[in-house]
Structures are given as C-alpha cells and as structure tokens.
C-alpha cells in the first residue's frame, strides 16, 4: 500500500493542507521555513515508527496565528485548540501474516454519513468533527454512530468486533482506507488514532482503536530527517525496522558453522568473549558487502562492519554497533552526516528486500545535505534504485529538497510546491492537475529536466525563447545598478525551447501558483499570442490580435532565412524538427503528404518572412490599436517586443559581433557587467527595455 493523499488541519503551519501523493517518487520543493518539514513530520506521526499516541506534542505543534485584540488594539497570538492528520492509503497489499498475529479483536463503529466526520463550508473551508475523533473510547455513545441492532437488554449495539481474519477480508474489500490522528491542546487526555474504511456497500466505519501491529501491517516507513541522528534513525530495539533488520540477519546467519572449528558462530561467541568481534563480523560479512557497494560510489571509506560493544550473552544481536573505517575505524555516529545518510538508505533497502513483506515508504529530508555533487547524484540514483529493487512489494519515496538534482526524471505531476501565505502565516501546497499534466509532452519534460528544474523553486519565472536567457539578468542589474538582483528576488529566467511551449509552461506555473512573465517577439502573434489570449480570456483585444496575425502571415516568405536556419541545424529547434521529418521521409517511415511534415513546412514559411512586421501591423490596425493590444498583454504578464525580435534592439556595435545569436547574447551579458559600459551603446529603444524590467520586478 502507499499514501495517496495526506491532509493536515491545524498542525504547525498546516492550517488546511491536502496533498496528492503517487506510488513511486514524490518531491516537495519550497523555500526554507515554507512547511515542507511539517508535512513530512505529519506523515511520520501517522505511519512512522513511533506510535502517534506516544508523541510528545506541545503548543508549538498547533497552528498559531495573530489577530487584533479589539479591546486593546494590539496583536495577540491565537493557538488552535485541536489538530487533525489523515493519510489515505491506496492498494491492498498489506501484511496478512502480521495481522493474524494480533490476539485481540478490533472494534469498528458505523458512521451515519461523511458529514458526521467532516464537512465543507460555503467558502471552501473544511470543518472537522474534532470531538468525535478525540472520543473513540466513548464512540458507542455518539449520535453520529448508527445502531447495528439491539442486544438482549434492549440497548443499541454501536460497534462490531472483528477477528484478525475478518479484518483482513474487510480491508481487502474496502473502497477507501484512511489513517487518522486527532489531538486536543486543551485536554491532554483527548486524542484519537484510528482507521476509517468505506466498505464495498458504501458503509463508513471508524475503528475504536488501531493497534500498532495493524498499523505496521499496512506500510513500513523510515524517515531520514534533515537533522541527521544516528541514535534516532538506527535504534536497536525490537520494534524498529533497524532492530528487526539486525535481529533478522542475526537469526538467519548465527547457526552457520565456522569452516574450521565446526561450531556455530553463536556458540563460539558465547564461549570466546575475547574473540567476539572477529566472529560477529563474519556473521554479517555478506550484508556489509552490499552496503559497501553503495558507499564505493558516494563516500570515501575502507570498510563497514558490525561489532559487539560488550559480551552480554542474552539477545546477542542487541550488542551490535555499526562501524565505518574511512582511514580511522569509528562508530557510525562519529562519522559525517553524508555517510550516515548513505548507510541508512542502504540498510532500509536491505531490510525491505529481506524482511518486510508489504509496502515500504522511505522519506528523505534534504538528502543533498553535506554531500559533494557526485555523491548527491549517487544518492539520488540509490533512492531511485530503492523504488525498483523489489518486484514483489510496492515502494513509495518522498523527498524534500532544495537541489535541482533530485527533480531530474521526476514526473511534474509528482512535484509538490510548498510556500507560505504571508497574510495568515500558514503553508500552502500546490501541484499539477491531471489535465495540465497530460498536456506536458515527453519532449517538454526532457527539456525541463535538463534545463529548467530551477523554476519550481522560484517566486517568479520569466519565460523566454532565445538569447534573453543570458541578457535579462545583466540588463536588470545594469538598469538597477545592482548585482544578481533577480536572484535576490527569487526570479528565474527559463528558456522554453520554442515559443510553442509558452502556453503549456504558463498552465504549469499557474497550477503551482508561481508568477510568470512571457517575453516573445512579434512572430508570437502568428500562433502563440492568439492561444494565450484565449486561455486568459482577453476578449477585448481578440479581434485586433486576429488582424495582427493576418497582417504578419500575409508577408512574403523569406527562403533565405529558412536556408540560414537549416544551415545552423545544430543550434535551431525548427531546423532539427524539419531534419528529423526529412530523414523519416527518406527512410520510408512517412509519406510526402504526412500531416506533421506539411505542418512543419507551413510553420517555417509563416515564421520566416521578409519585411518590417511592425510597419505591417500598424498599416493593418493602426498605431493606437497596436499600443492597446501590447498594453493589455503586458498587464497580463505577456511582453511582446514591439519592434520585432531581440536583435532588432541591438545597436550597430552589438550587431557587428561575430557568432550565433546565443553567443552574441552571452558576450553582451559579460560586457554589460563592466561598470564603465553604458547600456545605450549596446541597445536601442531603452525606454521599452525599462518597461520590461519593471514588469519583471
């Protein structure tokens, strides 16, 4: 099973947050203090090693906000009185054998309707029935619970007790399974941890209690927190995954015979205290080899070993401690946090491969911490390997990161952006909807992964098609007399690999609630601007945009420009597309009347034209209407160069530079960094460039 949805109400900065999670890899991105760690901690409370009812929650764990005290006129802190956490589980591959070991029956009560648990208000807020969830011990007395009949004394029966086998069948047929935890801040005794099930007949059931064995049978979880703690992550007690791993390895190998002495290692350990460390390492030799394979690529070291710290003869495995020799043989907790992270990932994967029979969830907070670039990539690969190393059990991976490395090859649909609402001091989580996700092509994903993953961390993104990706930061710094101003304001410049991708990018950014500015040339009026106008419902300029498109499309074709593009095929996306289609044509893969081939040729004919586009537009609709169209677009964060394209704004000095369009733009960006360089020596129409700068900032 895996977590398909997580919801939190009044937990830390999570006033009202719901995130969709997918089987496989999920990545949380966001600034420091945005709330990513709070989401992870909330998930850990529900499915982590420590049982929820044993969590030490304080006032700091409840949502806090400020409001005006109308009696004094001053701001006062208000702390929420209740919190509620919920995780919906998908799949039904739980550990049946573990459920069968539960000795007691499990009680369930039938709830009259979903509204008895939680309901949505007119403004979209969700009301949680905190009192019900915190009163599971008295659930039989609740009016929200249906009567299942009457007992011999004439009293209503409000629950049903299920044996382990009945629980298994119940869970198998359930349409919905949710884990929940509810806690009162005012009354420490009022809390509830249980399971909600929607049965095959749409009946809603809530458990009176959820045992640890039943919870653990659903999913095994480990969290590698940003604050690495070997003592917490690798506690050698019987109920932790690490304790189960070491005990399992010990039980599997302790009866192996020593090749020369013909005695089991366990007997030898008990007999020969002075030689304990040597024999223990032999017991775990095969398993430490697997760990060493991971570390070879990530961390400089010599050996990894399990050692006894004393010779206590009862439960011998509990005396084992992990050592790493990187030139100096020391316990793992004395080594750096990078190597600790690498070993924990490897050990958890080893545990899941050998001893855990159902689904596994690995959560890694900022796995890039304390690792050099190559090691980051190795750990990223190992995290991915964790997902695919088992064909028998589904695995889920949740990562929070500030590194673009961990977004490579991640489906945009599986990325969650977390940010703070400054007005209410609460976290907000945004992700793609299904429709937008389906419109993101494989080609766009590949370009996104290789060039533009940084945009997921930005507050604003400037979408460009060409050399502006190099020039805009330098122009802004020159006009504002600053250095790296865009970085300070968390603004990213992203190249979209063809203006045809503008619309998909803004749909994606809108889903993540990231501000954007589109920067395009007049050619965008041929196809992209009409699409953007339709998407943004800018009906007031729709007719003029259509006329602009017609005016530009009527201009004569420039076959010379097309020829130049084809000659520079290695640097031009349009030419590459045409080349690929011509290769398919020559190989007999497509016919000469192929729709894609004809559309590409027509596109290039429309795009590469002769003449002055600005003059053609003004002749068609007039200067005033053209200005209104440009102004309306800019008010909606679409900035179209009024004179043509970027190169139209170059002075003769800039045009005289040698090289491709990109190399010229890159060289100009370096020249602009000189304090003595005046911008008007390199660019024309500075007033329009200033307008662009103001829109970006």
Q: How would you summarize this macromolecular structure in one to three sentences?
A:
This protein is α/β, with parallel strands linked by helices and 697 residues long.
Explain this structure to me?
GO terms for molecular function: endonuclease activity. Keywords: Endonuclease, Hydrolase, Nuclease. It holds the Pfam family OLD-like_TOPRIM. The protein has 697 residues and is α/β, with parallel strands linked by helices. The chain folds into four domains: 2-223, Rossmann fold; 232-273 and 311-393, Rossmann fold; 433-555 and 613-696, no CATH class; 559-606, no CATH class. Helix content is 38%, strand content 21%. It has 27 helices and 25 strands. It is globular. The model has no long low-confidence stretch (mean pLDDT 86).
Profile the largest sheet. Answer: 8 strands, antiparallel
Structural class: alpha/beta
Question: What is the top-level CATH class of the largest domain?
Answer: Alpha Beta
Rg, Å, rounded: 32 Å
Q: What is the residue-averaged pLDDT?
A: 86
Q: Helicity level, as a percent range?
A: 25-40%
Cα distance spanning the termini: 46 Å
GO molecular function: endonuclease activity
Domain OLD protein-like TOPRIM: 456-523
Pfam families: AAA_15, OLD-like_TOPRIM
Keywords: Endonuclease, Hydrolase, Nuclease
Give the key terms.
hydrolase; 697 residues; AAA_GajA/Old/RecF-like; six-stranded mixed beta sheet; eight-stranded antiparallel beta sheet; alpha/beta; 25 strands; endonuclease; globular; 27 helices; 4 domains; Rossmann fold
């Amino acid at each position: 099973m895996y977590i398909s949805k997580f919801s939190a109400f009044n937990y830390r900065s999570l006033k009202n947050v719901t995130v969709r999670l997918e089987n496989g890899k999920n990545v949380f991105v966001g600034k420091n203090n945005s709330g990513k760690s709070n989401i992870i901690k909330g998930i850990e409370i529900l499915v982590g090693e420590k049982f929820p009812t044993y969590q030490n929650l304080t006032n700091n764990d409840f949502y806090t906000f400020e409001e005006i005290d109308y009696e004094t006129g001053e701001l006062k802190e208000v702390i929420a009185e209740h919190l509620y956490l919920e995780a919906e589980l998908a799949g039904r591959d739980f550990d049946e054998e573990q459920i069968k070991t539960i000795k007691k029956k499990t009680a369930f009560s039938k709830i009259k309707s979903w509204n008895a648990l939680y309901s949505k208000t007119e403004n979209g807020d969700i009301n949680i029935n905190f009192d019900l969830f915190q009163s599971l011990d008295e659930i039989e007395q609740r009016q929200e619970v249906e009567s299942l009949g009457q007992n011999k004394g004439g009293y209503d029966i409000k629950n049903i007790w299920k044996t382990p086998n009945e629980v298994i069948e119940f869970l198998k047929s359930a349409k919905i399974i949710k884990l929940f935890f509810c806690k009162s801040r005012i009354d420490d005794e009022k809390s509830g941890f249980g399971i909600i099930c929607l049965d095959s007949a749409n009946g809603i059931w809530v458990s009176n209690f959820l045992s640890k064995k039943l919870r653990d049978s659903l999913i095994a979880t480990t969290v590698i927190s940003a604050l690495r703690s070997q003592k917490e992550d690798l506690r050698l007690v019987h109920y932790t995954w690490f304790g189960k791993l070491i005990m399992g390895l010990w039980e599997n190998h302790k009866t192996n015979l020593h090749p020369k002495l013909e005695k089991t290692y366990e007997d030898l350990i008990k007999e020969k205290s002075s030689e304990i460390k040597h024999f223990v390492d032999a017991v775990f030799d095969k398993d430490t080899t697997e760990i060493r394979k991971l570390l070879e690529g990530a961390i400089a070291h010599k050996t990894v070993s399990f050692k006894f710290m004393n010779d206590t003869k009862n439960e011998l495995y509990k005396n084992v401690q992990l050592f790493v020799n990187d030139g100096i043989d020391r316990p793992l907790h004395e080594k750096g946090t990078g190597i600790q992270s690498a070993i924990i990932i490897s050990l958890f994967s080893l545990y899941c491969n050998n001893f855990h029979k159902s689904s596994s969830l690995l959560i890694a907070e900022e796995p890039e911490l304390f690792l050099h670039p190559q090691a980051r990539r190795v750990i990223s690969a190992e995290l991915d390997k964790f997902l695919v190393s088992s064909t028998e059990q589904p695995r889920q991976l949740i990562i929070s990161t500030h590194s673009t490395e961990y977004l490579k090859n991640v489906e945009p649909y599986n990325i969650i952006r977390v940010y703070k609402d400054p007005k209410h001091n609460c976290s907000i989580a945004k992700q793609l909807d299904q429709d937008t996700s389906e419109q993101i092509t494989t080609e766009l994903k590949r370009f996104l992964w290789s060039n533009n993953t940084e945009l997921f961390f930005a507050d604003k993104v400037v979408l460009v098609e060409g050399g502006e990706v190099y020039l805009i930061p330098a122009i802004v710094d020159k006009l504002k007399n600053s250095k790296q101003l865009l970085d300070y304001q968390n603004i990213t410049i992203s190249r979209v690999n063809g203006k045809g991708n503008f619309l998909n990018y803004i749909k994606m950014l809108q889903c993540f609630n990231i501000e954007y500015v589109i920067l395009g040339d007049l050619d965008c009026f041929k196809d992209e601007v009409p699409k953007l106008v339709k998407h943004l419902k800018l009906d007031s300029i729709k007719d003029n945009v259509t006329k602009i498109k017609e005016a530009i499309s009527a201009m004569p074709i420039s076959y010379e420009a097309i020829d130049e593009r084809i000659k520079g095929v290695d640097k031009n996306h349009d030419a590459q597309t045409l080349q690929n289609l011509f290769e398919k044509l020559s190989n007999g893969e497509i016919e000469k009347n192929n729709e894609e081939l004809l559309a590409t040729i027509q596109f290039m004919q429309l795009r590469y034209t002769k003449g002055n586009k600005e003059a053609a537009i003004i002749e068609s609709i007039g200067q005033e209407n053209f200005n209104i169209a440009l102004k309306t677009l800019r008010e909606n964060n679409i900035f179209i160069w009024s004179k043509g394209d970027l190169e139209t704004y170059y002075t003769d000095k800039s045009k005289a530079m040698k090289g491709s369009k990109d190399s010229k733009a890159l060289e100009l960006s370096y020249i602009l960094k000189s304090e003595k360089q005046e911008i008007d020596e390199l660019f024309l129409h500075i007033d329009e460039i200033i307008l662009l700068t103001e829109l970006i900032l």
